[in-house]
Write a structure and sequence with these properties.
Radius of gyration: 21 Å
Structural class: alpha+beta
Largest sheet: 7 strands, antiparallel
Shape: globular
Number of helices: 14
Number of strands: 10
Order of helices and strands: HHEHHEHEEEHEEHHHEHHEEHHH
Oligomer: single chain
Strand order of the largest sheet: 1-8-9-10-6-7-2
Strand content: 15-25%
Helix content: 25-40%
């Protein structure tokens, strides 16, 4: 049972239109793969938005029904997972004291999620006292997908991850891979030398100096859990797109990706908060509408293919052209 008073408080505090909260990913009229990371000024790992209850519901359903698809880890990551969990809990309680609280008596902790009316008592460091592994546990209380990336032997490894809202990639497949291996499907990313540059950048990250970047793609309908394992269910929706419905069906999907060096384990905590915005909302921000149009117009075909929207790119461009013309005529 959720706390209705707190539900209302979230809505009241965030009653501004969705488009004003949306992280628009484009800084210019052209987009190419690059290390577009910038310093994370807020220092926050997670953010609570009005979509909290719906998204936590989806996450928990997936983790209950297809856990192997949504969570993977190696036993050697457990100590680092505890460090990640502590960092996230402390942040939640500091930034959202009305929503989360923690009582610590030595290693005996009591964590309260007031949003969901849940109280969990456990012994910090004792995995038998939690119903799930630490990263899997705390991930059920935040909207972000969470990953622990270890740094050892001169490389980065995907050692643990809770992935419920993938943009067509699989944690079950990528778990245990190196940075270069799990990015190998990205066209021109490795052979251009960009993968090695980004890996070196990540390996030089310092504790207390987090970074953030925005990644993007397009999704048909408001679907967060686009697993490759379920492509037959959501991929076919592209065939439904027509000139009449393209604005409503196609959603701009932005991933707010944040990276934190863990001082204890020396690994990296990686969080992804996924946001969806129907393209038909873009005319409310004419500058965004025009920029998005120019980005798509300039985008190389191999990127459109990789991101999966080549089949309807022309319809989308035609829609954007029409909306831009309407804005110009209304002046």
């Amino acid at each position: 049972m959720v706390n209705s008073e707190i539900v209302n408080s979230i809505v009241i505090k965030n009653e501004q239109p969705q488009i004003t909260r949306f992280p628009f990913p484009f800084k210019s009229d052209s987009y190419r793969y690059s290390n577009n990371s910038v310093s994370l000024e807020s220092g926050q790992i997670v953010t609570i938005t009005p979509e909290y209850f719906a998204e936590i519901g989806i996450k928990r359903h997936l983790l209950t029904t297809v856990h192997h698809r949504s969570y993977q880890s190696f036993s050697h990551s457990l100590e680092a997972q505890w460090e990640c969990m502590e960092m996230i809990i402390d942040e939640l309680c500091a930034n959202y004291p009305d929503y989360f609280t923690i009582e610590k008596d030595g290693n005996h902790w009591i964590f309260v999620n007031h949003l969901l009316n849940e109280t969990i008592a456990f012994i910090f460091g004792d995995s038998s006292s939690l119903p799930y592994e630490p990263l899997d546990f705390i991930g059920r209380h935040v909207q972000e997908d969470l990953f622990y990336i270890s740094q050892r032997d001169g490389d980065l490894y995907m050692d643990a991850g809770q992935l419920c809202f993938p943009a067509n990639w699989s944690i079950a497949f990528d778990a245990g891979m190196t940075f270069t291996e799990w990015h190998s499907p990205v066209p021109h990313f490795s052979d251009s030398g960009m993968a090695e540059k980004v890996k070196k950048f990540l390996m030089k990250m310092e504790a207390g100096k987090p970074w953030t970047r925005l990644n993007w793609t397009l999704t048909v309908e408001s679907i967060l859990d686009t697993f490759p394992e379920t492509y037959a269910e959501w991929g076919v929706k592209k065939d439904q797109i027509s000139p009449q419905n393209v604005g409503k069906l196609v959603h701009l999907r932005t991933e707010d990706q944040r990276l934190f060096r863990m001082p204890g384990s020396n690994g990296i905590l990686f969080s992804i908060h996924t946001h969806l915005l129907p393209v038909c909302e873009l005319p409310k921000n004419p500058a965004w509408l025009k920029r998005f149009y120019h980005v798509l117009l300039d985008l190389p075909e191999y990127m459109a293919d990789y991101k999966g929207f080549s089949s309807y790119k022309a319809k989308l461009l035609a829609y954007l052209e029409t909306e831009i013309s309407k804005l110009q005529e209304s002046r």
